[in-house]
Amino acid sequence: MPVISMFYGVVVSMYFLDNRRHHRPHIHVKYQDHEAVIAIPDGEILEGVLPRGKMRLVQAWVEIHNDELMADWNLAVSGQHPFKIEPLR
Question: Quick check: 28 and 1 in contact, CB under 8 A?
């Protein structure tokens, strides 16, 4: 599971060949003991939970980096390594 970004204690990952369970483009997000699966491009929570403030940060990051996330998704579902994406600063 390649980590594609980290910011403010949030770790964002994208699994290889991960298009069967959720049937939509998504990222996996971890923050402390919390985990969530977040849809691309709209930032909808598909599974799990994050603290409200961290969720807002992740959704803003998804909106800012939507094109890069979709490009990474296409790489990951074809078994290729996704690129790193700039964190929030």
Answer: yes
Per-residue pLDDT band at 71 (split at 50, 70, 90): very high
**pLDDT for 30 beyond 80:** yes
Beta-carbon contacts of residue 70 (< 8 Å; ≥ 6 apart):
25, 40, 41
Helix (H, G, I), strand (E, B) or coil at 16: coil
3-state secondary structure string across 23-86: CCCEEEEEECCEEEEEECCCCCEEEECCCHHHHHHHHHHHHHCHHHHHHHHHHHHCCCCCCCCC
Read off φ and ψ for residue 2, nearest 5 degrees: -70, 135
pLDDT average, residue stretch 52-78? 95
pTM here?
A: 0.92
Tokens of 30: 């971890």
